[in-house]
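**Sequence with structure:**
===
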Amino acid sequence: MKQPTFNGRVLLPVDVIEAARAGDSLALEQILRYYDRYVNKICTRTLYDKNGLPYIGVDEYMKHRLQAKLTEAIVNKK
């Protein structure tokens, strides 16, 4: 059976989402890995090094907060 895709990317199976909602930590990790590229994209900011020079990078604080919110939304979904 062919897996469903959206814009050329294979979608997460529903059973993985249901397992994560039931408390399966491996399924939750799989969901976080699935969305990792998207989260990195929206957390990309202009940051400054210790000398005050700007560079483009991922705001790790923002990334961890978004991952926590995603985890909370999955686990607390009724």
Remarks:
- The mean pLDDT is 91.
- Residues 11-72 form one domain.
